[in-house]
Design a protein that fits this description.
The protein is of the alpha+beta class. About 30% of the residues lie in helices and about 30% in strands. It contains five helices and six strands.
Length: about 160
């Protein structure tokens, strides 16, 4: 994993915006405005790590892992890969996800969940990352249903 500070110097803001544009499905709900101070606090508190993919030292992908005790059994650690992105020209992120998984397992988490979009835009195509997750051994476990109460008002 790499520090938030270093990743921000290396272009995480811009890469995150690109990920947002390709994967966020309802811009009326949220805008791209990360709370970097919170990322840094979570990193300091050992509650979050960011794994980086690089090509010729350039940042081309990342995976954000959140680590937390299970609410129903506080002795059990759970990890969530909250956000994972690779630039389309650099592949699908298999090596990046495997690296994150190895660290999660060594950290002692019993289970890992990927919070992934149903589909993402890649140019004019829409693709589903589900096959990659299945290849890595993930299975669909729950379905999230979303209801929006108030749409975001543009400034």
């Amino acid at each position: 994993w790499e520090s938030v500070d270093q990743l921000l110097k290396d272009g995480l803001r811009e890469l995150g915006r690109r990920s947002w544009q390709e994967s966020w499905q309802d811009e009326k709900l949220l805008e791209y405005d990360p709370d970097w101070a919170r990322y840094k606090r979570m990193e300091r508190d050992n509650a979050m790590r960011i794994f980086a993919a690089r090509k010729d030292k350039k940042l081309v992908g990342y995976a954000v892992v959140i680590i937390t005790p299970e609410l129903h059994d506080r002795k059990v650690m759970h990890a969530i890969i909250q956000d994972c992105y690779m630039t389309p020209e650099c592949g699908h992120g298999l090596r990046l996800l495997k690296e994150a998984q190895r660290w999660i397992e060594k950290f002692g988490a019993r289970e890992v969940t990927i919070a992934g979009r149903i589909q993402v835009k890649r140019g004019k195509k829409k693709i589903s990352p589900g096959k990659l997750y299945q290849y890595l051994g993930y299975r669909a476990k729950e379905v999230l249903w979303t209801k929006v109460f108030n749409e975001r008002v543009s400034a």
